[in-house]
Amino acid sequence: MSKRLQNSGQSAKLSDVAAHAGVSTATVSRTLNTPAKVRPEIAERVRLAISELGYVPDAAARALASRRSRAIGALVPTLSNPIFADYIQAVEEGLDGHGYALVVASTDYRLDKELRQARALIEHGIDALLLTGTDHHQALYQTLEERSMPYVNSWAVLPHPTHPYIGIDNRHAAMRLTDYLLDLGHHQVAVIAGVMNENDRARDRVAGVRDALNARGYQLPADYLIEKPYGIDQGRQAMRTLMTSTNRPSAVIGGNDLLALGAVLECQTNGLHVPNDISIAGFDDMELSSHIPPTLTTMRVPTRTMGQRAAEYVLGRLSGEERETHVQLDVELIVRGSTAPVADSR
After folding, report:
1. Within the chain, what is the greatest distance between any pair of CA atoms?
2. Is the pTM of this model over 0.90?
3. Which in 6, 248, 261, 298 has the greatest CB count within 10 A?
4. Cβ neighbours, 10 Å, residue 82
5. Does domain 170-301 sit in CATH 3.40.50.2300?
6. DSSP class per residue in 139-186
């Protein structure tokens, strides 16, 4: 049949695929729309027939018949940070085999842009939406609820949850990291934070550092807190400022690994040894952090698990399944070569 279609120049139809695979047209349709409901060996036969015939489903017709676009939207602050690229890859893997495409948009850490991007995705007919963090315009939640559209927040948790989330407790994780440095004898701890405006993750991490210091009778002085956009060069700039302080900190926490790695590089350029002269720690555990010497002490965020669980959540909701709406994932302290006990000379 495939040769006849190719020779005639005709496009394969759903009925051609069904005949080629030896199944009904309904089975072909289920394989395309709800593959989880088709026995694996049958689904594989249908996919092989689709490949051999060069069949291309009519997306518009499928959307009209099912009232679904078979597309999931995802909003992330940026794709220039490898941690979000890893998250999106994990979401795609979670959707793989379920007949859904992923549509991604970046918000540049701006809630007004996030609202515009979300509305554009919704107008284009997405079936569900993945959000980053917990800072969102109320108008966005209202739009999602009016349309009964499944959604889930990621990367953070809500203390009084009214919305679904699959994320981490950034505040508590930052407290653990600070406690580790305090246990090493570091009482003068500075923070190179991400820009905290409209970024709940950055705010919570700074709050966690303050909590840990205050619990031991210490403070985070104003000149020990520098906000910068996430990036290696920005981390270097901030570290340059901290090094000029009359009372240089003995330890620095980066709001993410990029900022921390920038701080390490700036210290090395200026003759400071990490960790003998100053300890530096990050947050996220990017792949690069375990390779650049000294390897970076950091908090490991379960990025891939978070992306896969977020995909599973919206897929379950779209299938009418009950899903746990509030999921907190564990964050692990990874101790490497960039931190050490405070020097006796200090």
Report:
1. 85
2. no
3. 298
4. 15
5. yes
6. HHHHHHHHTT--EEEES---SS-SS-EEE--HHHHHHHHHHHHHHTT-
